Amino acid sequence: MNDDPAPGGEPVPRGQASIRRMRDHAIRPRHDLGQNFLVDDNILDVIARLAELRDDDVALEVGGGLGVLSEHLLERVAVTHVVEVDRGLEAPLREALGPGLEDGQAQLHFGDAVRIDLSALDPAPTVVVSNLPYSVAATVILRTVAELGSVQRWVAMVQREVGERFAARPGTPAYGAPSALAQLSCDVRVLRKVPRAVFSPVPNVDSVLLGLRRVRPPAPRAVRDLVDGAFRHRRKALPRSLSHVPGAPAGRRDAARAALERIGETVDVRAERLSAARFVDLAAALAEIEGDDAVASAIATWRGDA
């Protein structure tokens, strides 16, 4: 990527495009949106390498910011979708995406990534590469895993605590609903730590690059709902926790006990002890015991049962 010319004709060294755009467009990071802009281009090459970008990829970037990651993606993939909630960043983003907006190589979408219709993105994304705002990181990752079956790889800059939670294993303190939900469909790893100095303003928390690789299609809704319900009362035994889920059928507690016994788990086990795969087993057994043939069939099809 070439150095950007400054207004006076002097080149701005690689790595300072964000600083120039903040100055030229009078941009101030918004604390209410959790904005921490990337200001060190060295991390961009690391992100691109870890994402294993291909020239036929369709990239989705959530939180375009000042566009430094956006233009880096634009040079390496077929199409780049950029989703940004802050209309105040339109000018720097249009500057970064340039002619790509005219020839269709770049698409700029203004809206809240937690609410927009991701399935309407055309062409469908194959890879998610983002510096995610901390407040929405978990929700965005889980939405793209569940709703965008076309996406095969993720590399996301997230708060270290969020990254460790997604990659956590059963029985560890960090393991929770996000861990299990992501691991239903993906191999999840913390790829590397990220220095605070790559951001402006410098955040008060540590960040990591989180990587996901899809190994299965999006899990059936019933399985995801079961995981969500199981962790709502994580300190309770699973049968009791699942009986408190809104809309749970009568007799759910006894059915859950029977389902746990059927899959070889103790009836007093807590959600934090079950892996994503064991939640699938539990959901399938529970559907059979409760006579929900549609759910049982959906789970069997998803996991490839004969």
Explain how this protein is built.
The protein has two domains: 4-214, Rossmann fold (3-Layer(aba) Sandwich), CATH 3.40.50.150; 221-302, rRNA adenine dimethylase, C-terminal domain (Helicase, Ruva Protein, domain 3, Orthogonal Bundle). The termini are far apart. Strand 1 (4-5) and strand 2 form a beta hairpin. The strands form three sheets. The protein has a seven-stranded mixed sheet with strand order 6-5-4-7-8-11-9, with helices on both faces. It has a two-stranded antiparallel ribbon with strand order 1-2. The protein has a two-stranded antiparallel ribbon with strand order 3-10. It has helices spanning 17-24, 42-51, 68-74, 90-97, 100-103, 137-147, 160-167, 177-183, 221-232, 238-243, 252-262, 276-289, 293-302; strands at residues 4-5, 11-12, 37-38, 58-62, 79-84, 106-110, 127-131, 153-159, 186-194, 199-200, 207-214. With 306 residues, the protein is α/β, with parallel strands linked by helices. Helix 9 (221-232) crosses helix 12, helix 11 (252-262) crosses helix 12 and helix 12 (276-289) runs antiparallel to helix 13.
